[in-house]
Amino acid sequence: MSDQPASGAGDQRNGRNLPPLRLHVPEPQFRPGDTADFSSFEIPAAGEAPRPDEAAHPGTMQGLVYGLIRVLDDEGAAVGPWDPHLPAETLLKMLRAMALTRAFDERMFRAQRQGKTSFYMKSTGEEAVSIAAATALASDDMCFPSYRQQGILIARGWPIIDMMNQIYSNKGDRLKGRQLPIMYSARDASFFSISGNLTTQYPQAVGWAMASAARGDTRIAATWCGEGSTAEGDFHSACTFASVYRAPVILNIVNNQWAISSFSGFAGAEATTFAARALGYGIAGLRVDGNDALAVYAATRWAADRARANAGPTLIEHFTYRAEGHSTSDDPSAYRSADEGSHWPLGDPIARLKQHCIRLGIWDEERQAAMDKELAEQVRDAAREAEKNGILGHGLHHHPMETMFEDVFEDMPWHLREQQQQMLDEAKAAGL
Amino acid sequence: MSSSLSDSGSGGLQQMTMIQAINSALDVMMERDPDVVVMGEDVGYFGGVFRATAGLQKKYGKNRVFDTPITEIGIIGVAIGMGAYGLRPVPEIQFADYIYPALDQLVSEAARLRYRSAGEYIAPLTVRSPFGGGIFGGQTHSQSPEGIFTHVSGVKTVIPSTPYDAKGLLIAAIEDNDPVIFFEPKRIYNGPFDGHYDRPAKGWAGHPGAMVPEGHYRVPLGQARTVRQGEALTILCYGTMEHVVESTVADMGVDAEIIDLRTLIPLDIEAIERSVKKTGRCLIVHEATRTSGFGAELSALVQERCFYHLEAPIERVTGFDTPYPHSLEWAYFPGPVRIRKAIDKIMKD
Ligand SMILES: Cc1ncc(C[n+]2csc(CCOP(=O)(O)OP(=O)(O)O)c2C)c(N)n1
Ligand SMILES: [Mg+2]
């Protein structure tokens, strides 16, 4: 049968006496101008989800991929079997790291707006996802993050000035100005080099975990991607490998409901949950309130213990909301309802953890305000310090130009040497 | 400009940016041909991260303009299937740097479907994708991977350098029954770029290539454009580099013949041959990395066909063979200094 298109398609439609097919194209609930209304959105109560044994067979815990593991209730009390019973010190440490991440994001976003660098991405509203997870992992467990988990570095106590130097691509940038701002790499913090290409880190994390297992190591791996990124083939390859080799890995999906302008329906959320992806692969799946730091901690701890016991990988969906634009290049008012964020029923992760700490009597509003002020100053001082190493500007003066040719290979081949010399001659000719 | 017209545009002329011209080409083709569909990440309601598809979903509906899951291999594979049904898909890959996950569907499938089915099935796709650097986009928003596609038998590769050409070439690409990779030089979406990063950005206003017919017209695939006639040397270029070359040549006052290739495959070999035989000297300029870049192919062709007319060795000006750096972007970019030096060298020999 010849199938030349050139407007041939029309003739083939409706050839038989059958109802016409229809194409379904997903549509979000709210668009600009709409009032966001989540009243029909059913929120499972805190404490309701059962907590299986860490070695449970995935088939026996399928309900957890459709529910929502929540520990903090509306009053800020920790309830149910997933309550991790954390000591006050750990709770306050998490609270502080989350607040520092938010202050850091505010400052760096403004720095981009002031023309000090080319690009920035905030993680506002998603601080619990990275910080509670990093707190539940061992400090040498290997993290393969996406671009929105700066909180991991902050939770691990990585110097924020080092992150700022990278954002400014300045003299202090250990990555020599090679990467777009926020594409950190911090081997000493067991934090993998971030790629701009979505989901590539997923199979890499599985491979690291397989290597750790093959060597009889005790460290596990964890990786993160956005819900939109689960559509990439790499996500599915990673799940298959993780399942086949029972890799000691935690696969985190940060479902912040938006992928730039595309709502989660374009990644499959109209049909099922992201945690339910685990079922087909025979992987343990958990669906967690991502704005509940205790739930994120507990789920991560469960998955880490499972991996360490050689019981295999866990896929965790963190249900949250991207409270701000995708990046400094984005204006979300063009595609989503302006008040969606403020109506989002799972609240703000910092406010919820703060409420819990206050309820426990280990914290109060005065101390919170003092901490916020102190952190803002800490970030301001670090930014000033980092700016002494330079801001991006035209970029040419921070790193010796010849470094551009280093690290392409371990040893520089002749053609790169020649090009390096050519560039230096050019720079001279241009008076640089 | 007029040499590029194969059929004159209907409707009046309008000043457009390259984004507007691309949008207009899509609009014209969707209006004329109900089989044309536009798909890709963020292209629907939002109208694309560069706004190239703005307004199209509203006008033509979600059956014909739709957002897709974030999977480039899925986007291209689905487009091939739609093409097999008889539609004429125009998928967008948000940045050329993200086309690699789609390579298997492009290289093993789209490019070979006609051949392996002896013409029973075809893949009439036009894959649009912003490419090239100059926007501080770092290594994942800056690359020029055209050489990967020119190396594959069975896909056409098209790169415009003006709004006029962008619209006419995109229409011709969509009407073409073979798969076309249509790389859009994003640095010049909103204005030409002379390569001087330290000068204020210019808009398209006043540029002759920014006057665009409102209606349908084609710039045929496979025809180069002579940007400037000259006797001293031939410069082969395309995309953003056409403007950098033009400005450098003007600054130097050298009588160069500048040829904007516009289509890399199929290549306008006659225009190249005619010019190099006349001038006896040839410079090739592209932003992509040097080794195995399209310039290597051009250099081989010129050597094979014009050897006895050459008065100096062929020169190539290109990006360096490193990943695209962030902060050292302007040391990497093949700007006026690199071009000037190569011209001086060719003219000395
Ligand atoms: C392979 C690839 N395709 C497309 C992009 C462009 N892109 C960058 S971020 C993004 C959206 C990702 O959304 P999601 O996975 O939900 O993560 P979020 O930004 O919400 O954290 C897209 C499409 C990319 N970086 N890499
Ligand atoms: Mg998302």
Automatic annotation (TrEMBL), chain A:
Database matches in InterPro entries: Alpha-ketoacid_DH_E1_comp (IPR050771), DH_E1 (IPR001017), Oxoisoval_DH_suAlpha_N_dom (IPR022593), THDP-binding (IPR029061)
Keyword Iron applies: no
Cofactor section: thiamine diphosphate
EC number, UniProt record: 1.2.4.4
Biological process, per Gene Ontology: branched-chain amino acid catabolic process
Major enzyme class: oxidoreductase
Keywords: Oxidoreductase, Thiamine pyrophosphate
Keyword Oxidoreductase: yes
PANTHER family reported for this sequence: 2-OXOISOVALERATE DEHYDROGENASE SUBUNIT ALPHA, MITOCHONDRIAL (PTHR43380:SF1)
Protein name per Swiss-Prot or TrEMBL: 2-oxoisovalerate dehydrogenase subunit alpha
Organism of this sequence: Sphingobium quisquiliarum P25
From TrEMBL, chain B:
Co-factor(s): thiamine diphosphate
Gene3D superfamilies xrefs: 3.40.50.920, 3.40.50.970
GO molecular function ontology, one term from the record: branched-chain 2-oxo acid dehydrogenase activity
UniProt xrefs under CDD domains: TPP_PYR_E1-PDHc-beta_like
GO BP term, pick one: branched-chain amino acid catabolic process
Keywords, sorted A to Z: Oxidoreductase
Annotated Transketolase-like pyrimidine-binding domain residues: 16-191
Record-linked InterPro entries: THDP-binding, Transketo_C/PFOR_II, Transketolase-like_Pyr-bd, Transketolase_C
SMART domains assigned: Transket_pyr
Name of this chain's protein: 3-methyl-2-oxobutanoate dehydrogenase (2-methylpropanoyl-transferring)
Organism: Sphingobium quisquiliarum P25
Classification lineage: Bacteria, Pseudomonadati, Pseudomonadota, Alphaproteobacteria, Sphingomonadales
